[in-house]
Amino acid sequence: MSAPMLEVRDLQMHFPIGGGVLDRLRFDSKGLRLEKPVVHAVNGVSFSIARRQIMALVGESGCGKSTVAKTIARIYQPTQGAVLIDGEDVAGYGFAQMLPVRAKMQMIFQDPYASLNPRQRVRDIVAEPLLEQTKDAADRRDVPARIEALLAKVGLNAEHAGRYPHQFSGGQRQRIGIARALSVTPGLIIADEPVSALDVSIQAQILNLMMDLRDEFGLSYLFISHDLSVVHHIADWVGVMYLGFMVENAPRDVLFTQPRHPYTRALLSAAPSIKAKRDTQEISLSGEVPSALTLPTGCCFRTRCPFAWGRCASERPKLQDVGEGQTVACHLVDEPQRDTL
Amino acid sequence: MSGDTPLLAVRDLRTHFHTFSGVVRAVNGVSFDVGKGEVMGLVGESGGGKSVVGFSILGLIDSPGKIEGGQIMLDGEDLVSAGEARMRQIRGREISMVFQDPMTSLNPLHTVGRQMDEVLRLHSDLDASARQKACVAMLESVGISRAAERLGAYPHQFSGGMRQRVVIAIAMLAQPRLIIADEPTTALDVTIQSQILKLMRAQIADKGASMILITHDLAVVSEMADHITVLYCGNVVERGKTRDLIEMPAHPYTRGLIDSIPDPSNRQDRLRQIPGSVPDIRNLPKGCNFRDRCPRAQAVCREVEPELMAQHATLWAACHFPLKPGELA
Amino acid sequence: MTTFLQSELFHNYRRSSSAIIGSGLMALFAFAVLAGPFLVAQDPYDIAALNLMDSYKPPVWLEGGDPRFILGTDGQGRDVWASVLYGARISVFIGLVAMMASCLIGTALGLIAGFYGGILDTVIMRIADVQLSFPSILIALFLMSAVGTGVDKVLIALTAVGWVVYARTVRGSTLSEIEKEYVQAAKVAGLPNRKIIRKHVLPNVLTPLIVIATIQVGTFVLIEASLSFLGVGVPITQPSLGLLIKNGFDVLFSGLWWTSVFPGFAIMMLVFGINLFGDFLRDELNPRLK
Question: A173 at the C interface (CB within 8 A)?
Fold first, then answer.
């Protein structure tokens, strides 16, 4: 049994904010002190993705899913935790050590208008990751042919190679981004909301393309999205995040038919559907997501949870296995009688 | 559509933009009705012209854009030929608008209370204390607690969802008869979106107002709207009662849009996709705009532009070969 | 070339009278600066060619004028027209070179400050703040007392103040560009930081600099003129337009106006032309959100 393509253990990402020393000095009734406000973006997330598997991370804004993606891609360095790419922990790697790992892992981004350098031609954009990996002159001569093949694979043609991004539509730009990610034949592609900025009819094209590529190249995807219907279509496993925590993780069908965490249930019932009737239980949330600067004590979701009781404020729930591969972080698992809906 | 006179009747609206690279016919012959107390969904993808329709109704089209033709009848009065003075009376009072981005639709330098007060000062005869009471009541009805206190707050002190509530409150203050909501929940999280949509439904029902809901999200519109108008490249390709249009669309584009949405209850390996991409709106092809992407296109589609024709009592489509009920493209 | 001629930029240029006038004036000056020495018979700084008997002759259209000296002569018998042409060369040279030096230094520092942030950013920006609080005259005065006058000292004084606007602008643009996803993509592709700055950030922050640089040439010409007028600018051996004004200033009130007015007029035309064209560029290059 080979190692999973990606394994994340207890990942934490905290961002200090608040400017320089002079900005952070505070003088009030408590005296003079230096504040160090920190955004707790990711607070101990663990999961793994096998080869050829698509794992989706869902959640709303501020839940940390994009930060997880970028931390795994080592755009940031994790505050704590392990990130194992093909069995190798890259969390502490420096620039030079990361370079060979970059051939195994690439990323697709959300905004088709900001993810391509407007001053670069398409062929240079697509070739960039590959050129960083190929320093031998003989191998570099093969690069243009490879780029042409890649463009064809994503549905573009050779004459597009010499053009600039602004000459393409949103969907085409995403295709260019996908070609770029494929250039190094990675095993893992991290896709950060790849279709959220696209029209619905183009979304379908790109999703189909991504799935075809997975079948052909044996790729794994970490698919970040807030759109549950897209996730339902493409994912094998789904992880639900809230305020930097993973609150539930399950195979796709299990999550959508038997959601256990109150937030997952609320999310599923809030999502508008084109079908006339919905039979999921209506959990309606009030209020807004608390600030990531000061996390609530105990369970991160308790401020909006319809079931919260004393234990939720004092004890942070851990992910527990509830069968069929599903794990939930909620005290209701121990006290199901409190689930009154 | 209801039997009596519609509140808003748009006939053959044409709004064109004369840009350096060509004439953009953003809205090119759009007609629809909105009855009293009805919610109409205006659906289309980017570049389809739906926002331009909303701005045209309110007379907010600036150069290089211009309303080139057509009528916009608000209860019998043509807004296209009404002067700017009359439009200023109408905006905010008879027709108001809710925009997509709550960050930029509120003035960051004025308190919320002042922005609300401004609407009432312009459009009502209430004195200062009556206005204050009305503002407090309105904020409470959109679900903002401690309303009197919050009147003194600035927009940046509210979160995205709260700001959109404020925007809705402002839109409803002068008791408009028609609200144009342009992608009001697109920028919001799905749980907040659900709250805001419920709120809008309640407000409209309560005040007997009508609404045009402009969005690209078919799922949202299927839950909110009584009837739907689908735009493609500046033309109406289909319109009709919501459930009829969603369940048995006659136009291949509508069918394609609906099929593009992943359906959890009917999982397929591949989503049905509409091939190709939207044509350049400065260079629309002859005949039907959709012909290069339509699996049913024939020779006549490349020559003759189809007219909007009734498919049955509650559904119109502009297609030479419309789908029969239950037929897949 | 054809794409440029068909572009919106060129189209708007043709329709903008201020842009055409502005660029026309600039072109005139460019021509004068390059061809100057060939347009005049007399080299005004060749002492042997001067004749004191020709001093203070008024412009040709006034009584006492001499057709050899269209705009008159100064106290040494120098042809004012020739002096203006030579002076323009020096003024423009100083403006251009100081601008280029400021642009290079400022852009480099702005990129570093914006990209790396942290202590580097703080230090560079604080130096910028301090720099701005020194008027260039103070720096020029200091230099003069320490090492004397000279064109190079003027260049140093101007650059010392001029780099800040580039650094600030580039830093701001850099801060917003590094958040963009294509920069993150470059990181994920494994590009080292210096390559990211060079290939991705730099080309995308250059556009606003075009306007700044254009207008700064005019600003520098004016500042240099003030410095020279006050005697801390160029040496007498290389009189810029500003120094010419100063030289004529002493006799200005005795009615011998042409020695100061024509150089002043030349400066005015140059700066006016630059500002007109610069305004046009600013509006054109501003990304317009529809």
Answer: no
Contacts of C31 (CB under 8 A, 6+ apart): none
C-alpha distances in angstroms, C214 versus A273, C109, C209?
A: 56, 20, 8
Angle at CA A61, nearest 5°, toward A56 and A66?
50
Closest partner residue to A233 among B220, B223, B271, by Cβ?
Answer: B271
pLDDT by position in tens, chain B (length 329): 445 688 999 999 999 999 888 888 899 999 999 999 999 999 988 777 888 999 999 998 888 888 999 999 998 889 988 888 999 888 888 999 998 877 788 898 999 999 999 888 888 888 889 999 999 998 888 888 888 888 999 998 888 888 888 999 898 888 899 999 998 888 788 888 888 888 888 888 888 899 999 998 888 999 899 999 999 999 999 999 999 999 889 999 999 888 888 877 777 778 888 888 788 888 888 888 888 888 888 888 888 888 888 888 889 999 988 888 777 75
The ipTM of this complex is: 0.87
Q: Domains in chain C, please, with CATH? A: 36-285 (1.10.3720.10)
Read out DSSP for A306-318? TT--HHHHHSPPP
Which residues from A are below 8 Å from B219, CB to CB? 229, 271-274
Do A226 and B189 make contact, defined as CB atoms within 8 angstroms? Answer: yes
Judged by CB atoms closer than 8 Å, whether chains meet at A98 and C189 is answered as: no
- Closest residue on chain A to B274 (Cα): A201
Question: Does the model's pTM come out above 0.80?
Answer: yes
Superfamily for the A6-104+186-286 domain: P-loop containing nucleotide triphosphate hydrolases (3.40.50.300)
Give A77 to chain B, closest Cα distance, Å: 28
For chain A, the structural domain boundaries read: 6-104+186-286
Provide the 3-class DSSP secondary structure of residue C24. Answer: helix
Closest-approach residue (CA) in chain A for B268: A233
Let me know: does C81 contact C40? Beta carbons within 8 Å.
Answer: yes
Q: Does A62 touch chain C (CB under 8 A)?
A: no
